[in-house]
Amino acid sequence: MTRPHLLFAAVAVTLALAGCARPTPEQQFIDDAFAALGGRSRIEAAKSLTIEGTGVNYNLGQDMKPEAATQVFAITGYKRVIDVTNGRQRVEQTRTPKFAYFQGPQPQKQIQGLDGTVAFNVNAAGQAAPVGAAAEADRRADFFHHPLTLLHAAQTATATVQNVRTVGAVRQANIKTPHLQFTLTIDAAGVPLSISSNAYHANLGDVVMTTTFSNYQDVNGLKLPARLAGKVDDFTTWEILAATQTLDGQTGELAAPASVATARTDKPEGLSPPVTVIAEAVGKGVWLLAGQSHHSALVEFSDHLMLIDAPQSEARTLAVIAKARETVPGKPLTQLVTTHHHFDHTAGMRAAIAEGLTVITHEGNKAWVERMAKRPHTRRPDALAKNPRAATVEAVDAEREFKDASMALTLYQVDGNPHSDTMLMAYVPSARVLIQVDAFSPGAQTNPYAANLLQNIQSRKLAVDRIVPLHGTTAPMEELIKTGR
Ligand SMILES: [Zn+2]
Predict the structure, then answer these.
(1) Measured in angstroms, how far is the CA atom of residue 361 from the centroid of ligand 1?
(2) Distance from the CA of 321 to the center of ligand 1, in angstroms?
(3) Span from the CA of 420 to the centroid of ligand 1 (angstroms)
Protein backbone atom coordinates (compact mmCIF):
# COMPACT_ATOMS: atom_id res chain seq x y z
CA MET A 1 0.00 0.00 0.00
CA THR A 2 1.39 3.38 -0.91
CA ARG A 3 1.34 6.33 1.45
CA PRO A 4 0.98 9.29 -0.83
CA HIS A 5 1.15 11.92 1.88
CA LEU A 6 4.53 10.69 3.10
CA LEU A 7 5.92 10.52 -0.41
CA PHE A 8 4.72 14.05 -1.01
CA ALA A 9 6.39 15.19 2.18
CA ALA A 10 9.70 13.62 1.19
CA VAL A 11 9.63 15.34 -2.20
CA ALA A 12 8.78 18.65 -0.56
CA VAL A 13 11.75 18.34 1.81
CA THR A 14 14.13 17.56 -1.07
CA LEU A 15 12.87 20.55 -3.04
CA ALA A 16 13.18 22.78 -0.01
CA LEU A 17 16.79 21.65 0.55
CA ALA A 18 17.64 22.21 -3.08
CA GLY A 19 16.07 25.64 -2.92
CA CYS A 20 17.97 26.62 0.21
CA ALA A 21 21.32 24.97 -0.48
CA ARG A 22 23.72 27.49 -1.86
CA PRO A 23 26.11 26.16 -4.45
CA THR A 24 29.68 25.83 -3.27
CA PRO A 25 32.06 28.53 -4.57
CA GLU A 26 33.52 25.87 -6.86
CA GLN A 27 30.13 24.98 -8.34
CA GLN A 28 29.19 28.66 -8.61
CA PHE A 29 32.40 29.37 -10.49
CA ILE A 30 31.74 26.60 -13.03
CA ASP A 31 28.04 27.49 -13.28
CA ASP A 32 28.94 31.11 -14.05
CA ALA A 33 31.33 30.03 -16.79
CA PHE A 34 28.71 27.69 -18.28
CA ALA A 35 26.08 30.42 -18.17
CA ALA A 36 28.38 32.93 -19.88
CA LEU A 37 29.02 30.49 -22.73
CA GLY A 38 25.36 29.66 -23.35
CA GLY A 39 24.39 27.18 -20.66
CA ARG A 40 25.60 23.89 -19.26
CA SER A 41 23.41 21.63 -21.37
CA ARG A 42 24.50 23.23 -24.63
CA ILE A 43 28.18 23.05 -23.67
CA GLU A 44 27.83 19.45 -22.54
CA ALA A 45 26.06 18.53 -25.76
CA ALA A 46 28.83 19.93 -27.98
CA LYS A 47 30.80 17.08 -29.54
CA SER A 48 33.31 18.89 -31.71
CA LEU A 49 34.49 22.33 -32.69
CA THR A 50 36.34 23.45 -35.80
CA ILE A 51 38.15 26.80 -35.72
CA GLU A 52 39.38 28.19 -39.03
CA GLY A 53 41.27 31.42 -39.48
CA THR A 54 44.60 33.18 -39.78
CA GLY A 55 47.22 34.47 -37.40
CA VAL A 56 50.88 34.77 -36.54
CA ASN A 57 53.55 32.68 -34.86
CA TYR A 58 56.52 34.26 -33.11
CA ASN A 59 60.04 32.87 -32.90
CA LEU A 60 60.60 32.06 -29.24
CA GLY A 61 64.28 31.58 -28.48
CA GLN A 62 65.33 32.06 -32.11
CA ASP A 63 64.87 35.80 -32.70
CA MET A 64 67.53 38.44 -33.41
CA LYS A 65 68.28 39.17 -29.75
CA PRO A 66 67.44 37.40 -26.50
CA GLU A 67 63.74 37.85 -25.73
CA ALA A 68 63.08 39.94 -28.86
CA ALA A 69 59.79 39.40 -30.73
CA THR A 70 60.57 40.95 -34.09
CA GLN A 71 60.41 37.82 -36.25
CA VAL A 72 56.98 36.66 -37.35
CA PHE A 73 55.57 33.77 -39.36
CA ALA A 74 52.27 34.59 -41.07
CA ILE A 75 49.75 31.80 -40.46
CA THR A 76 47.22 31.01 -43.17
CA GLY A 77 44.87 28.09 -43.65
CA TYR A 78 44.65 27.56 -39.91
CA LYS A 79 42.24 24.80 -38.97
CA ARG A 80 41.94 23.36 -35.48
CA VAL A 81 39.50 20.47 -35.15
CA ILE A 82 38.71 19.51 -31.56
CA ASP A 83 36.88 16.24 -30.94
CA VAL A 84 35.72 16.97 -27.42
CA THR A 85 34.15 13.58 -26.82
CA ASN A 86 37.10 11.43 -27.92
CA GLY A 87 39.97 13.64 -26.77
CA ARG A 88 41.37 14.17 -30.25
CA GLN A 89 42.68 17.27 -31.96
CA ARG A 90 44.22 18.15 -35.29
CA VAL A 91 45.82 21.49 -36.13
CA GLU A 92 46.72 22.31 -39.72
CA GLN A 93 48.40 25.52 -40.72
CA THR A 94 50.66 27.04 -43.32
CA ARG A 95 53.37 29.28 -41.96
CA THR A 96 55.32 31.74 -44.05
CA PRO A 97 58.38 33.44 -42.56
CA LYS A 98 58.30 37.23 -42.79
CA PHE A 99 62.03 37.45 -42.06
CA ALA A 100 65.25 35.92 -43.40
CA TYR A 101 64.58 32.32 -42.37
CA PHE A 102 67.26 29.63 -42.56
CA GLN A 103 64.97 27.29 -44.53
CA GLY A 104 64.10 30.00 -47.02
CA PRO A 105 61.02 32.16 -47.62
CA GLN A 106 58.64 29.47 -48.95
CA PRO A 107 55.46 28.59 -47.03
CA GLN A 108 55.54 25.41 -44.92
CA LYS A 109 52.48 23.32 -44.15
CA GLN A 110 52.30 21.83 -40.67
CA ILE A 111 49.92 19.16 -39.37
CA GLN A 112 49.87 18.32 -35.68
CA GLY A 113 47.69 15.56 -34.27
CA LEU A 114 46.66 14.38 -30.84
CA ASP A 115 44.74 11.19 -30.15
CA GLY A 116 44.23 10.72 -26.42
CA THR A 117 47.75 10.49 -25.05
CA VAL A 118 49.47 10.06 -28.43
CA ALA A 119 50.81 13.17 -30.21
CA PHE A 120 52.10 13.05 -33.76
CA ASN A 121 53.02 15.19 -36.74
CA VAL A 122 52.13 14.52 -40.37
CA ASN A 123 54.72 15.54 -42.95
CA ALA A 124 54.25 16.90 -46.48
CA ALA A 125 54.23 13.33 -47.86
CA GLY A 126 51.37 12.43 -45.53
CA GLN A 127 53.52 10.29 -43.22
CA ALA A 128 52.72 10.47 -39.52
CA ALA A 129 55.41 10.21 -36.85
CA PRO A 130 55.20 10.55 -33.08
CA VAL A 131 56.64 13.70 -31.49
CA GLY A 132 59.07 13.80 -28.56
CA ALA A 133 58.02 13.63 -24.94
CA ALA A 134 58.15 17.41 -24.33
CA ALA A 135 56.02 18.24 -27.39
CA GLU A 136 53.60 15.48 -26.45
CA ALA A 137 53.14 16.90 -22.94
CA ASP A 138 52.55 20.39 -24.37
CA ARG A 139 50.03 19.12 -26.89
CA ARG A 140 48.08 17.14 -24.30
CA ALA A 141 47.84 20.30 -22.20
CA ASP A 142 46.94 22.41 -25.23
CA PHE A 143 43.87 20.25 -25.84
CA PHE A 144 42.38 21.62 -22.61
CA HIS A 145 43.44 25.21 -23.34
CA HIS A 146 39.97 25.99 -24.64
CA PRO A 147 36.85 26.82 -22.59
CA LEU A 148 34.85 24.07 -24.28
CA THR A 149 37.24 21.20 -23.52
CA LEU A 150 38.20 22.38 -20.04
CA LEU A 151 34.60 22.95 -18.91
CA HIS A 152 33.67 19.54 -20.31
CA ALA A 153 36.53 18.01 -18.31
CA ALA A 154 35.63 19.98 -15.18
CA GLN A 155 32.27 18.19 -15.02
CA THR A 156 33.65 14.65 -15.16
CA ALA A 157 33.93 12.53 -12.03
CA THR A 158 37.73 12.45 -12.19
CA ALA A 159 38.17 16.25 -12.20
CA THR A 160 38.01 18.56 -9.22
CA VAL A 161 37.57 22.32 -9.00
CA GLN A 162 39.62 23.90 -6.24
CA ASN A 163 40.77 27.14 -4.70
CA VAL A 164 38.30 29.64 -6.14
CA ARG A 165 39.70 33.11 -5.56
CA THR A 166 39.22 36.70 -6.65
CA VAL A 167 42.26 38.39 -8.14
CA GLY A 168 41.58 42.06 -8.81
CA ALA A 169 38.65 42.20 -11.22
CA VAL A 170 38.77 38.53 -12.20
CA ARG A 171 38.07 35.17 -10.58
CA GLN A 172 40.27 32.10 -10.80
CA ALA A 173 39.98 28.43 -9.94
CA ASN A 174 42.20 25.41 -10.33
CA ILE A 175 40.74 22.59 -12.36
CA LYS A 176 42.54 19.37 -11.65
CA THR A 177 42.29 16.54 -14.16
CA PRO A 178 44.02 13.17 -13.68
CA HIS A 179 46.72 14.35 -16.07
CA LEU A 180 47.35 18.00 -15.22
CA GLN A 181 46.11 20.99 -13.26
CA PHE A 182 44.80 24.06 -15.08
CA THR A 183 44.02 27.57 -13.89
CA LEU A 184 40.85 29.01 -15.41
CA THR A 185 40.38 32.77 -15.19
CA ILE A 186 36.89 34.24 -15.73
CA ASP A 187 35.61 37.79 -15.63
CA ALA A 188 32.79 39.09 -13.39
CA ALA A 189 30.21 37.73 -15.83
CA GLY A 190 31.83 34.31 -15.97
CA VAL A 191 33.40 34.68 -19.41
CA PRO A 192 36.66 32.68 -19.64
CA LEU A 193 39.62 35.02 -20.17
CA SER A 194 42.49 32.55 -19.98
CA ILE A 195 43.58 29.01 -19.18
CA SER A 196 47.09 28.27 -17.99
CA SER A 197 49.08 25.23 -16.93
CA ASN A 198 52.59 24.49 -15.77
CA ALA A 199 55.06 22.96 -18.15
CA TYR A 200 58.76 22.17 -18.50
CA HIS A 201 60.90 23.66 -21.24
CA ALA A 202 64.40 22.26 -21.83
CA ASN A 203 65.94 25.74 -22.05
CA LEU A 204 63.66 27.80 -19.84
CA GLY A 205 62.93 25.19 -17.17
CA ASP A 206 59.71 25.74 -15.25
CA VAL A 207 57.28 27.75 -17.37
CA VAL A 208 53.60 28.66 -17.37
CA MET A 209 51.77 28.13 -20.67
CA THR A 210 48.78 30.44 -21.04
CA THR A 211 46.09 30.74 -23.70
CA THR A 212 44.00 33.92 -23.63
CA PHE A 213 40.50 34.28 -25.11
CA SER A 214 38.67 37.34 -26.45
CA ASN A 215 36.30 38.47 -29.23
CA TYR A 216 33.56 36.10 -28.10
CA GLN A 217 31.06 35.41 -30.85
CA ASP A 218 27.86 33.47 -31.29
CA VAL A 219 28.41 29.93 -32.65
CA ASN A 220 25.13 28.01 -32.96
CA GLY A 221 23.87 29.42 -29.70
CA LEU A 222 27.16 29.11 -27.84
CA LYS A 223 29.51 31.99 -27.06
CA LEU A 224 33.03 31.07 -28.11
CA PRO A 225 36.24 33.09 -28.42
CA ALA A 226 37.26 34.13 -31.92
CA ARG A 227 40.65 35.47 -30.82
CA LEU A 228 43.05 33.11 -29.10
CA ALA A 229 46.68 33.74 -28.18
CA GLY A 230 49.34 31.55 -26.57
CA LYS A 231 52.14 32.54 -24.23
CA VAL A 232 55.14 30.84 -22.65
CA ASP A 233 55.52 32.82 -19.44
CA ASP A 234 55.18 36.40 -20.76
CA PHE A 235 56.36 35.70 -24.31
CA THR A 236 53.51 35.52 -26.84
CA THR A 237 54.19 32.60 -29.17
CA TRP A 238 51.05 32.59 -31.35
CA GLU A 239 47.84 34.49 -32.11
CA ILE A 240 44.84 33.19 -34.07
CA LEU A 241 41.78 35.06 -35.26
CA ALA A 242 38.92 32.76 -36.24
CA ALA A 243 37.09 33.57 -39.46
CA THR A 244 34.63 30.72 -39.02
CA GLN A 245 33.78 28.38 -36.18
CA THR A 246 31.70 25.25 -36.65
CA LEU A 247 30.06 23.22 -33.94
CA ASP A 248 29.55 19.49 -34.48
CA GLY A 249 30.60 19.60 -38.13
CA GLN A 250 32.56 17.00 -40.09
CA THR A 251 35.80 16.33 -38.21
CA GLY A 252 37.47 14.03 -40.73
CA GLU A 253 39.82 11.29 -39.51
CA LEU A 254 41.46 12.35 -36.23
CA ALA A 255 42.67 8.98 -34.91
CA ALA A 256 46.42 8.37 -34.80
CA PRO A 257 47.53 6.00 -37.57
CA ALA A 258 48.57 2.58 -36.27
CA SER A 259 52.16 3.25 -37.41
CA VAL A 260 52.42 6.07 -34.85
CA ALA A 261 51.61 3.85 -31.91
CA THR A 262 54.11 1.24 -33.16
CA ALA A 263 56.90 3.81 -33.59
CA ARG A 264 56.15 5.13 -30.14
CA THR A 265 56.49 1.79 -28.37
CA ASP A 266 59.71 1.11 -30.27
CA LYS A 267 61.39 4.12 -28.70
CA PRO A 268 60.03 4.73 -25.26
CA GLU A 269 62.68 7.25 -24.10
CA GLY A 270 61.45 10.46 -25.61
CA LEU A 271 62.30 9.36 -29.16
CA SER A 272 65.75 11.00 -29.14
CA PRO A 273 68.44 9.09 -31.00
CA PRO A 274 71.51 8.24 -28.89
CA VAL A 275 74.13 11.02 -28.85
CA THR A 276 77.25 10.52 -30.94
CA VAL A 277 80.30 12.83 -30.93
CA ILE A 278 83.23 12.51 -33.34
CA ALA A 279 86.41 14.56 -32.86
CA GLU A 280 87.87 15.71 -36.18
CA ALA A 281 91.15 17.66 -36.16
CA VAL A 282 90.85 20.76 -38.36
CA GLY A 283 94.20 22.37 -37.52
CA LYS A 284 96.80 22.35 -34.78
CA GLY A 285 94.93 22.63 -31.49
CA VAL A 286 91.50 22.87 -33.15
CA TRP A 287 88.88 20.10 -33.40
CA LEU A 288 85.36 19.91 -34.72
CA LEU A 289 83.31 17.87 -32.25
CA ALA A 290 80.79 16.70 -34.79
CA GLY A 291 77.34 15.58 -33.82
CA GLN A 292 74.25 14.51 -35.71
CA SER A 293 72.86 17.95 -36.59
CA HIS A 294 74.58 20.31 -34.14
CA HIS A 295 78.33 20.39 -33.60
CA SER A 296 80.76 22.04 -31.17
CA ALA A 297 84.42 22.98 -31.56
CA LEU A 298 87.33 22.46 -29.20
CA VAL A 299 90.38 24.74 -28.96
CA GLU A 300 93.54 23.92 -27.00
CA PHE A 301 95.44 26.66 -25.18
CA SER A 302 98.67 26.16 -23.16
CA ASP A 303 96.97 25.45 -19.89
CA HIS A 304 93.28 25.03 -20.64
CA LEU A 305 90.66 24.09 -23.22
CA MET A 306 87.90 26.17 -24.76
CA LEU A 307 84.62 24.71 -26.05
CA ILE A 308 82.55 26.54 -28.65
CA ASP A 309 78.79 25.96 -28.28
CA ALA A 310 76.79 23.61 -26.04
CA PRO A 311 73.91 22.74 -28.36
CA GLN A 312 70.73 20.69 -28.50
CA SER A 313 70.43 19.05 -25.09
CA GLU A 314 72.09 18.43 -21.79
CA ALA A 315 72.85 14.88 -22.94
CA ARG A 316 74.67 16.12 -26.05
CA THR A 317 76.66 18.74 -24.16
CA LEU A 318 77.76 16.30 -21.45
CA ALA A 319 78.88 13.89 -24.19
CA VAL A 320 80.71 16.73 -25.97
CA ILE A 321 82.45 17.73 -22.73
CA ALA A 322 83.51 14.11 -22.15
CA LYS A 323 84.84 13.93 -25.73
CA ALA A 324 86.78 17.19 -25.25
CA ARG A 325 88.44 15.84 -22.11
CA GLU A 326 89.23 12.57 -23.87
CA THR A 327 90.65 14.35 -26.94
CA VAL A 328 93.09 16.46 -24.91
CA PRO A 329 93.57 14.65 -21.60
CA GLY A 330 95.21 16.45 -18.73
CA LYS A 331 94.11 20.00 -19.52
CA PRO A 332 91.09 21.51 -17.79
CA LEU A 333 88.12 22.54 -19.90
CA THR A 334 87.33 25.98 -18.47
CA GLN A 335 85.61 28.08 -21.14
CA LEU A 336 82.44 27.83 -23.20
CA VAL A 337 81.93 30.27 -26.05
CA THR A 338 78.19 30.67 -26.63
CA THR A 339 78.12 31.92 -30.23
CA HIS A 340 74.55 33.21 -29.95
CA HIS A 341 71.49 32.88 -27.77
CA HIS A 342 69.35 30.58 -29.95
CA PHE A 343 67.77 27.76 -27.97
CA ASP A 344 69.07 24.99 -30.24
CA HIS A 345 72.67 26.14 -29.62
CA THR A 346 72.29 26.77 -25.89
CA ALA A 347 70.23 23.84 -24.61
CA GLY A 348 73.38 22.43 -22.98
CA MET A 349 74.70 25.74 -21.65
CA ARG A 350 73.39 25.13 -18.14
CA ALA A 351 75.11 21.73 -18.08
CA ALA A 352 78.40 23.42 -19.05
CA ILE A 353 77.89 25.97 -16.24
CA ALA A 354 77.27 23.07 -13.84
CA GLU A 355 80.61 21.63 -15.02
CA GLY A 356 82.27 24.90 -13.96
CA LEU A 357 82.84 26.41 -17.41
CA THR A 358 82.96 30.20 -17.75
CA VAL A 359 80.57 31.39 -20.48
CA ILE A 360 81.98 33.82 -23.02
CA THR A 361 79.39 35.48 -25.23
CA HIS A 362 78.43 38.71 -26.92
CA GLU A 363 77.69 41.59 -24.60
CA GLY A 364 74.06 41.58 -25.78
CA ASN A 365 73.60 38.03 -24.45
CA LYS A 366 75.36 38.43 -21.07
CA ALA A 367 72.37 39.36 -18.90
CA TRP A 368 70.29 36.70 -20.63
CA VAL A 369 72.88 33.96 -19.91
CA GLU A 370 72.88 35.03 -16.25
CA ARG A 371 69.08 34.84 -16.17
CA MET A 372 69.04 31.44 -17.87
CA ALA A 373 71.48 30.11 -15.27
CA LYS A 374 69.17 31.27 -12.47
CA ARG A 375 65.88 29.96 -13.82
CA PRO A 376 64.21 27.26 -11.72
CA HIS A 377 64.24 23.77 -13.25
CA THR A 378 62.33 21.99 -10.48
CA ARG A 379 59.92 20.00 -12.66
CA ARG A 380 62.72 18.05 -14.31
CA PRO A 381 65.90 18.95 -12.45
CA ASP A 382 68.81 19.33 -14.88
CA ALA A 383 72.53 19.17 -14.10
CA LEU A 384 72.60 22.78 -12.88
CA ALA A 385 69.49 22.33 -10.73
CA LYS A 386 71.12 19.31 -9.10
CA ASN A 387 74.47 21.06 -8.71
CA PRO A 388 73.63 24.77 -8.48
CA ARG A 389 76.30 27.38 -8.99
CA ALA A 390 76.33 30.96 -10.20
CA ALA A 391 77.30 31.48 -13.82
CA THR A 392 80.51 33.33 -14.58
CA VAL A 393 79.91 35.23 -17.82
CA GLU A 394 82.43 37.25 -19.81
CA ALA A 395 81.23 39.57 -22.54
CA VAL A 396 82.72 40.29 -25.95
CA ASP A 397 81.80 43.47 -27.79
CA ALA A 398 83.09 43.90 -31.37
CA GLU A 399 86.06 41.58 -30.89
CA ARG A 400 88.31 40.00 -28.30
CA GLU A 401 91.56 38.08 -28.66
CA PHE A 402 92.46 35.06 -26.51
CA LYS A 403 96.18 34.38 -26.74
CA ASP A 404 98.88 32.44 -24.96
CA ALA A 405 102.09 30.61 -25.90
CA SER A 406 100.38 27.91 -27.93
CA MET A 407 97.14 29.41 -29.26
CA ALA A 408 95.69 32.66 -30.52
CA LEU A 409 91.98 32.93 -31.26
CA THR A 410 89.85 36.01 -31.86
CA LEU A 411 86.11 36.21 -31.35
CA TYR A 412 84.39 38.73 -33.63
CA GLN A 413 80.81 39.89 -33.66
CA VAL A 414 79.19 38.81 -36.94
CA ASP A 415 78.24 42.36 -37.71
CA GLY A 416 74.84 43.06 -39.28
CA ASN A 417 73.95 39.41 -39.80
CA PRO A 418 70.20 38.84 -40.32
CA HIS A 419 70.37 35.60 -38.31
CA SER A 420 71.20 37.27 -34.98
CA ASP A 421 72.31 40.70 -33.79
CA THR A 422 74.44 39.26 -30.99
CA MET A 423 76.39 36.48 -32.71
CA LEU A 424 80.11 35.68 -32.52
CA MET A 425 82.45 33.83 -34.88
CA ALA A 426 85.91 32.50 -33.95
CA TYR A 427 89.04 32.97 -36.06
CA VAL A 428 92.21 30.91 -35.53
CA PRO A 429 94.91 32.53 -37.71
CA SER A 430 97.52 29.79 -37.16
CA ALA A 431 95.13 27.16 -38.58
CA ARG A 432 93.58 29.63 -41.07
CA VAL A 433 90.11 28.46 -39.99
CA LEU A 434 86.93 30.31 -39.17
CA ILE A 435 84.52 28.61 -36.77
CA GLN A 436 80.94 29.83 -37.10
CA VAL A 437 77.39 28.60 -36.85
CA ASP A 438 74.19 29.28 -38.75
CA ALA A 439 75.69 32.07 -40.90
CA PHE A 440 76.89 29.46 -43.40
CA SER A 441 75.88 25.79 -43.29
CA PRO A 442 77.65 24.00 -46.18
CA GLY A 443 75.27 21.64 -47.94
CA ALA A 444 72.11 23.44 -46.79
CA GLN A 445 69.49 24.12 -49.45
CA THR A 446 69.55 27.84 -48.75
CA ASN A 447 72.09 30.03 -46.97
CA PRO A 448 70.43 33.43 -46.56
CA TYR A 449 73.07 34.72 -44.11
CA ALA A 450 76.22 33.66 -46.00
CA ALA A 451 76.73 36.90 -47.93
CA ASN A 452 76.94 38.81 -44.66
CA LEU A 453 79.41 36.29 -43.22
CA LEU A 454 81.61 36.70 -46.29
CA GLN A 455 81.55 40.49 -45.83
CA ASN A 456 82.52 40.07 -42.17
CA ILE A 457 85.54 37.95 -43.14
CA GLN A 458 86.60 40.16 -46.04
CA SER A 459 86.17 43.52 -44.30
CA ARG A 460 88.45 42.28 -41.50
CA LYS A 461 90.91 40.81 -44.03
CA LEU A 462 90.96 37.45 -42.23
CA ALA A 463 93.16 34.83 -43.91
CA VAL A 464 90.75 31.89 -43.98
CA ASP A 465 91.32 28.64 -45.88
CA ARG A 466 88.54 26.60 -44.28
CA ILE A 467 85.16 27.23 -42.74
CA VAL A 468 84.40 25.07 -39.71
CA PRO A 469 80.61 25.19 -39.40
CA LEU A 470 78.66 23.91 -36.43
CA HIS A 471 76.02 22.63 -38.89
CA GLY A 472 77.12 20.58 -41.92
CA THR A 473 80.68 19.61 -42.81
CA THR A 474 83.85 21.71 -43.07
CA ALA A 475 84.24 23.48 -46.38
CA PRO A 476 86.94 25.37 -48.25
CA MET A 477 86.69 29.16 -48.22
CA GLU A 478 85.91 29.06 -51.97
CA GLU A 479 82.59 27.43 -51.16
CA LEU A 480 81.56 30.36 -48.97
CA ILE A 481 82.74 32.80 -51.64
CA LYS A 482 80.59 31.00 -54.22
CA THR A 483 77.56 30.86 -51.90
CA GLY A 484 77.87 34.39 -50.53
CA ARG A 485 78.64 36.16 -53.78
ZN1 LIG B 1 70.80 30.34 -34.71
Answers:
(1) 14
(2) 21
(3) 7
Q: How far is the CA of 393 from the centre of ligand 1 (A)?
A: 20
The model's pLDDT over 430-456, given as tens digits with 9 standing for 90+, comes to: 999 999 999 999 999 889 999 999 999
Q: Are 182 and 174 contacting, i.e. CB atoms less than 8 angstroms apart? A: yes
45-99 pLDDT tens trace? 999 999 999 999 999 999 999 988 899 999 999 999 999 999 999 999 999 999 8
CB 271 within 8 A of CB 132: yes
Closest CA to 33 of 160, 172, 157, 180: 172
Average pLDDT over the chain, rounded to an integer: 93
Q: Can you spell out the DSSP letters for 378-409?
A: -SS--HHHHS--PPPEEEESSEEEEE-SS-EE
Task: Tell me the pLDDT tens digit for each residue of 380-423.
Answer: 999 999 999 999 999 999 999 999 999 999 999 999 999 999 99
Ligand 1 centroid, distance to 342 Cα (angstroms): 5
- Rounded Cα distance, 55 and 352, in Å: 38
Rounded Cα gap, residues 337 and 399, in angstroms: 13
